[in-house]
Structure formats: C-alpha cells, structure tokens
Recover the amino acids of this structure.
C-alpha cells in the first residue's frame, strides 16, 4: 500500500513538472525515480524509452507503466500511468473551461518561451549524461549516430530505427550463439 | 450525450493502439476522428493542440482530455484519456512481464546492447526539435540547405539564456537543484527578457 501511494505521489509530481511531453520527462524521472526513490537505473529508463518509441501509445505512459510494473506489477502500472497523466488532465480541463485567455496574455507567452528554453537546456544536459553512460565504445557511438541522422535530418519515424536496430541486435546474438557452438 | 461515449472510447482506444512514438503521433488520428464525427473544426483543433502542449504532462492524454471534454463534458474527458492509455497499459504490462522473465537471457542482452545506443541517438534527435522550438524558427531540412542564413533565425536572447542555464546544469552543487527550479527561473527570465 505504501509503495503504491509513493508511486502515485512520485508520478503525479513528474507529470506536474514535465513541460514538453515524454522526452522532457527524463530530467524529472532522473531526479524523482532514479536518484530519490532508487526504483530503477538510468540504463533501465533508457531501455524503456527505446521500447516506448516502437510500441503503441504515448511514450510518457509507456515509461510510467514499465516503472510502475517493476514496483507493484499490474496495479503499479495502472497507478503510474494514471498519476502521470492526472495533473495535465486537470489543468487542460481548467483551460478548456475558458481560462485559456490566461495563456494568451503576452506575459504568460514570455514566461512560456523562457520555460521552453529551460526545458531545452534540461534535456540537452540529460542527453549528455545519457551519452556519458551509454556510449563508451566507438561502435556504440556509430549506432547512436546512425539512429540520430535519419530522424533528426530526414524526418524518419523512430519506430523504423528501433525496429532495424532490434534486427541487427538479434543477428548479432545469432552469430555469437553459432560461434560459441562451433568452438 | 450518452450515445457518443462508446464512439469516444472506440476512437481513442484505436488511436492509442495505432499511434506509435508519442503524443504528437496522435494528431493525425484526432484530425480524422474530428472530420468523421464533426467533433472539432480545424481551427478548434489547432487551439486545442496549443493548449495541450502548454499544460504539463503527456501531450497525448492532454489532447484526449480536451477533445473528450468538448464532445461529452467531464465523463467524455475521463473516458477519452483512459481509452487512449488502455492499449499502452495492456501491451507494456505484457512487455514488462517478458523483460522480467528474460532477465538473465543472452538474446535479450544482445538486443539491449544495440537498443541502448539507438535509444540514446533517438533521444538526441528529439532534443534537436526542442532546440529548434526554443531557440530558432527553422526546421532541420531548411537549415541544412541554408546554412548562411542561420543567424537571422535565432532568438539571441533565448540562446544566451540557454547557454547560461546549460552552464549551470554542469556546475557542481548547482546541478543538484531540482529541475523544476530551472523551469521556474526560465519563466522569470522569459518575462524579464520579453521572449516569445
């Protein structure tokens, strides 16, 4: 019960402080889930983002479901997903009730522009940290660059990139298995 | 009102099942369902996307809440957001249990060795979009062909703020400050500098 409540509180906080969708959630997850709660490692969260980019649905919900399941199985998955969506849900309903004039005000627009810059800085720092922990050999850098270019420069869908990478990984596994049998 | 709820559920469940790769991938589905049922005009959709992206949290569920509210009030909002999440909850619960079962598995390990740097590259690609939105008004394709004209497309106050915040994020002790504090500082600086 205590873990479920902690899951709810942590994911509610992550949902409330994430501006800019699934990826902007990474710095908040790092702080709340990895550093503060110690529920999973940065490696695992990076895995979950890979899964999120090639499975149906919203990435933020995918990541919350996978972390929630780790803690409390199906109940944890449901609580994590609902808690991360709840703050935005309430605020959107408020804005749709006619409060949207608030965000049309020039001061609010300036604040939002500044927040976008802060989010850009946070996700840039997060990416540097991810590369520090994930990319240690030249072949890992090669894979990262090969994934980056088609999506960033040519607008390819990330799901194709993850799918191709999975095939390459499986081929690598098959070759290692075969070699170990020959020897 | 009640008779639209089954349609709302079906449309958003379908969207959750077939939109791969995040909230923005749901937009074409929202356009199609709005045209099919006459739920929102193109103009209302554009406003809706702006509001959903301003609010915190996942964009996909924010947009679903907005459309659901517009069509069938509060029950519509709750149903649409839940229906959108349901396929993800089911599929990823299955994936999570498989990951758990194959914890010590050579094939899974080989797969993850390739998928982790791939994921890192994809996250870096998404960051490019964040930088474009926050610092400059140009898209990557255009930027590749018009390198000489880059300077005019940057908001240099925003770039300056970005550099300062990024430097702080790599300063010992300061980088331990909660990310939400950085966003609050960004909001204050945005007002002070008159960004936007």
């Amino acid at each position: 019960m205590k873990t479920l409540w902690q899951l709810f509180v942590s994911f509610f906080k992550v949902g409330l402080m994430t501006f800019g969708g699934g990826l902007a959630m990474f710095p908040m997850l790092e702080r709340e889930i990895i550093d503060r709660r110690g529920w999973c490692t940065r490696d695992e969260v990076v895995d979950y983002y890979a899964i999120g980019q090639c499975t149906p649905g919203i990435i933020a919900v995918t990541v919350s479901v996978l972390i929630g399941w780790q803690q409390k199985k199906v109940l944890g998955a449901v609580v994590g997903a609902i808690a991360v969506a709840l703050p935005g849900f309430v605020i959107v309903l408020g804005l749709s009730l006619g409060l949207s004039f608030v965000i049309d005000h020039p001061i609010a627009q300036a604040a939002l522009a500044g927040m976008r810059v802060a989010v850009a800085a946070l996700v840039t720092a997060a990416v540097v940290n991810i590369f520090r922990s994930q990319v240690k050999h030249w072949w890992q850098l090669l894979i990262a660059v090969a994934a980056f270019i088609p999506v960033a420069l040519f607008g390819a869908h990330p799901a194709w990139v993850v799918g191709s990478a999975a095939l390459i990984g499986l081929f690598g596994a098959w070759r290692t298995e075969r070699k170990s049998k020959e020897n | 009102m009640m008779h639209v709820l089954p349609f709302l559920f079906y449309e958003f469940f379908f969207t959750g099942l077939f939109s791969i790769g995040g909230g923005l991938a749901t937009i074409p589905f929202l356009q199609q369902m709005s045209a099919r049922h006459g739920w929102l005009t193109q103009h209302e959709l554009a406003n809706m996307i702006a509001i959903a992206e301003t609010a915190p949290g996942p964009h996909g569920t924010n947009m679903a809440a907005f459309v659901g509210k517009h069509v069938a009030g509060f029950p519509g909002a709750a149903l649409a957001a839940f229906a959108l999440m349901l396929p993800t909850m089911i599929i990823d619960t299955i994936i999570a249990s498989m990951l758990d079962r194959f914890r010590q598995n050579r094939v899974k390990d080989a797969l993850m060795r390739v998928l982790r740097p791939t994921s890192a590259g994809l996250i870096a690609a998404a960051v490019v979009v964040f930088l474009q939105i926050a610092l400059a008004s140009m898209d990557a394709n255009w930027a590749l062909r018009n390198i000489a004209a880059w300077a005019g497309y940057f908001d240099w106050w925003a770039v300056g703020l970005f550099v300062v915040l990024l430097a702080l994020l790599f300063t010992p002790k300061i980088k331990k400050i909660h990310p939400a504090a950085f966003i609050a500082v960004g909001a204050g600086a945005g007002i002070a500098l008159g960004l936007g």
